[in-house]
Predict the structure.
Amino acid sequence: MRNKIIFVIVATLLCFLGYYYFFSAIIAQKEIFVNVKKGKFIVSVTSTGELFAKNSLDIRGPQGINTVGVWNIKIASMIPEGTVVKKGEPIGSLDGSEIVGKLKERQTELDKAMSQFSQAQLDTALDLRKLRDELVNLKFAQEEKKIILQQSKYEPPATIRQAEIELEKAQRNFKQISQNYEVQKDKASAKMQEAAANLSTVKSKVDFIQDLLQKFQISAPEDGMMIYARDWNGQKKREGSQISTWDPVVATLPDMSLMVSKTYVSEVDIQKIKKEQKVQVGLDAFPDKKFTGKIISVANVGEQKPNSDSKVFEVNIQIDQKDTTLLPAMTTANMITSEVIENAIYVPLESIHNEKSIVYVFKKEGTSYIKQQVKVGKTNDNDIIIIEGLTEKDQVLVSKPANTDKMAIKKLKK
């Protein structure tokens, strides 16, 4: 009987141990421990950017369209983006329908001005001819009165006086009409000058619009690869888009020898970013390609991120190398090195937890684990520095186990 009891006890213990190791194995399979690392810790900020040429030549639409009352022009046609063009080759055209309407209005004004000029010429010629004819007649009349006066020297004094008076009146009339002729001639000259000036002004407007229309066929100013320009909202200008008098750029010819990645960094990370910091740049289109670069500018003022309450700061990264795979508008992955800390102890970010302002990890202890309070330092995209609470010999759980909320935290010694 005694042997039977001992056998039952031993069998029970064996079953218990079997279940314990069985479930421990299951737990060990579910929970993943990682080693605490010690070594060089790189504080970095990762962001997505877009390539553009640091230097480029703008291809602009015609200047001065606002002088004819037009403020926006639609792009009628554009060759495909990325086309390599030679100097003078056509790259697109603008819709000139509104300008043609303005030209018709100015042409009507020109016809009217030409008619007014011709009428002024005709009126001036007729008026001055009439005055010249009158002067000739008055001159003859004056000569006639002189003859009458000469013939009246044997007449009575009253008759002679009457002849003298008639001659004086004829002389006075001739003098008045002569003066009037000079005034009318000056007036006619001023009228002609005004009509000619008006005609010249209207004609210059017509000539300007005609020259403007010639520029609606846009050509490449130099050799290069054509890249569409962007509107104020970041959208590329293409067929159907509009250019304005304030932003007449249609496309650009980038200098591919010096490329820049434009990226945006969140307001949380911007304090880590400074000019001249080193950057590793990758291309989404060519994952195996890696380049180096440096930050050349950091915006002082943030801007609102679309569809978000957060603000971002523009950062420009100049790439050190030249490569034919670097093309405008390519997407880049930028890893900005903010700081390098030697001999740092660090763990994955996922292993850090927080409870009532106490930061802790699940530290391996024997075959189980404990909640260990830690003091943390700087972070990067994947890891976080442990200032106190762990050593490089420890292991921690990557994720938080279930049913551990009531588990006590082992706090750091003060």
In short: DSSP finds three helices and 24 strands in the chain.
